[in-house]
Fold this protein.
Amino acid sequence: MVTNIHPARMNFLAPHHQQAISIRPSFSLWDFMTSTPVSDIVVGAPSLAPLLGLVEKDMERVNATIIERMQSDVPLIPKLAGHLVAAGGKRMRPMMSIAGAMMATATPDERGPAILLATAVEFIHSATLLHDDVIDESNLRRGRDTANALWGNDAAVLVGDFLFARAFELMVEADNISVLGRLAAASAKITEGEVRQMTITGNPDTPVDDYLDVIAGKTAVLFAAAAGAGAEVSGGSPDKVAAMYDYGLQLGMAFQIMDDALDYSADAATMGKNAGDDFADQKITLPTIIAWQDGDDDERAFWQRTLGEARFAKDDLATAQAMLAKHDAIDRSILRASGFAEAACVAVAPFADDPATADLAAALCDAARFAAMRTS
Amino acid sequence: MVTNIHPARMNFLAPHHQQAISIRPSFSLWDFMTSTPVSDIVVGAPSLAPLLGLVEKDMERVNATIIERMQSDVPLIPKLAGHLVAAGGKRMRPMMSIAGAMMATATPDERGPAILLATAVEFIHSATLLHDDVIDESNLRRGRDTANALWGNDAAVLVGDFLFARAFELMVEADNISVLGRLAAASAKITEGEVRQMTITGNPDTPVDDYLDVIAGKTAVLFAAAAGAGAEVSGGSPDKVAAMYDYGLQLGMAFQIMDDALDYSADAATMGKNAGDDFADQKITLPTIIAWQDGDDDERAFWQRTLGEARFAKDDLATAQAMLAKHDAIDRSILRASGFAEAACVAVAPFADDPATADLAAALCDAARFAAMRTS
């Protein structure tokens, strides 16, 4: 039964949307589409619930470890870190590490190292958020005042550094030098992605591939490393480690594209941040690249004045949203995210036949499709 | 022969200056003083030259590795990092790792892992400098424009993050999980020290012990971890690892106290930064703590208005310097640094009798005394 299909996905087989995916050049969405019955692809409404159900108990252990390990003799550190952590968030990244451990069929007792890594991954992510908010001069995150707004840039930078260092302490405790190497390399790639993003900021004519490089670095690589490391530290076979890494990478791409698309369509209450933040920050994202590419001279002049030169006027956000709508840029972005979500499903498909991993593989695929379906 | 003794050290045996050293409670300067002839303590003019001579060849390898490993596909990263690295600096921290390897009597061929660690340590230090300059809004470091002044706070924060992540990659390559753990813990302690410093900023009545905690964290722990890790990764015996860790800790304390003392006495040309920076930044350092403790009500009101409330008037720096001179605060600070330098000598003294390490032990002691003798 096919129900609740996101409108943008109704025609996601249309070949003219299948641009090359620089992140994973060997993947052909077309091959997958033509060899897989549509009824197998979209069954019921995608949901995060099955995955949440599987990882729930482990995530409680992760949350406890997060609280325990953000402590310090210096009171400001847990206070500031706790403000961010208490605000919640989806904890998607640590969930990747737990899913990796489950894919490796580690028993709950054997998942201790993966729980340490999951905590480390959340700390790396939190450190990045703290530094991002300083860089963007943001004052609202997840519906609350940002740490830099409350305690100043200096404290936010330093506590970010602390969480990053603490993350490495946790990884060392997981006691697997190969995994450590992967996570250290991922951390370097994240910062490269962030610097890359900085260098494309204000350039509305950025090519799509450059954007994909940016989000691969700043977002997808951490999802990938988290999932792969969870599998590897739990004794997963090389094919499972590679599959989970790939799954995380594709999911991360979908996740970030959706985040960027929703920035022009969601309201602050739903997102926990201000809609149009990316616009005000001159960030170049997939919707604006599509609108630039398909825009006429007047439209390009608009993007150049706003995103390019930060000369904003009242109603510019509404004008931007109207231009995005004219070119169907949000739905076309979501379509692109759907492609990555399907690639994530392909990555874990080989493990759908094994009774030990069938439920997990299905839940992971469901979660990926859900990530590309957020409609708010 | 006793020559070239720094004036401040002429009376450094005076017991009333021997406050408890919270960093190393088991160390008794008095025990050392009373059991060691003065002629053994100060022989000739302390100099960095013997240590520089011993480590010279390895430091060339470290410098080459620094250049090689700060590369990235993202051009802004090596450009910004190179600006800081090219400005030089004393490279004291990587030198600690090399000295550790030599203390472990590793041959030049066996020093590869220590060279990786030395590079990592310099990267951690560089990352800290980049973030510090953002936090302090500094525009001059080592006599050149700061990275944040040239490329903006965002780039400086992110490239700092990159260097930190790259440092962990290098440590992983050194392939010793115990050493990795120590360096990760040291990194967390550095950031704790920096946050602690932030929390005492603007409080002129900070106790000396709180100040010592701050500089132990923000400076001495990295010297210590660098020296200890260099010895451990090179197969040094536990006593040598512990001795090098201790040496680094004591030297780091001396080094930072001198840095803080010179901030009120040196000129920009010598220091490569603006004299009085700490004063303007409301940083609480040993000279100001001494002046506060021994100051009368009028003096305390001055420190409260300036360091406490940042209400600065013209000539305040000159007034501060005069008050410090009145209480001999600079020389008394240098005296304190000398005490730590002597403790560093004590740490390596056990290896002065072994022909394989005698020259190194002597050179290390000389370097520590030199660090506490900078008169500019």
Summary: The CA atoms of residues 224 and 248 of chain A lie 4 Å apart. The beta strands of chain A are 140-141, 144-145. The longest helix of chain A spans residues 208-233.
